[in-house]
Amino acid sequence: MTAFSLGKGVTLNSAEELEAALRQIGATRYHNLHPFHRLLHGGKLNKGQVQAWALNRYYYQSTIPIKDAVVISRVRDRGIRLEWRHRIEDHDGDLGTEGGIERWLKLTEGLGLDSAYVESTEGILPATRFAVDAYVHFVRDKTPLEAIASSLTELFAPNLHEERISECWRITISSIPIS
Q1: Each residue of 24-41: pLDDT tens digit?
Q2: Class for domain 46-152, per CATH?
Q3: What are the residue boundaries of the structural domains of the chain, listed by start?
């Protein structure tokens, strides 16, 4: 099963069935299940590997508001545009507020990377640039429904964020000496 094929003869008769099918795909194929992410979250990577991941991931994170602006530009419904707008602010921030991109820059700085170098994107892998740019082209070229459907992180991310926070908390607590 892929994100584009639920199998022969599968018919979805309601929004609830579509959501259940998407959640099943996410439960078995979301990026947190990839072996690389298991190594990353398990603390098995060296500093250079984490730096490379953060540098390349920055390009993706910094492109998300561009992708979301493309999505908004394709939707005629004002209510949907207003609802979607927060996604841009989540990443770009707003006057006086920090967004996700700033937090990624702090992460890369903490890993010893120069912010100007990270923001230049000159060090990212060509495959990263290709994949991220293809994502923007996808939301530009496909139907608005497909563009919105490609952005369903909310279906899967809350559990992933809980898992990451729980793991960080466990590591932090276990490192505190008890006397």
Answers
A1: 777 777 777 778 888 888
A2: mainly alpha
A3: 13-44, 46-152
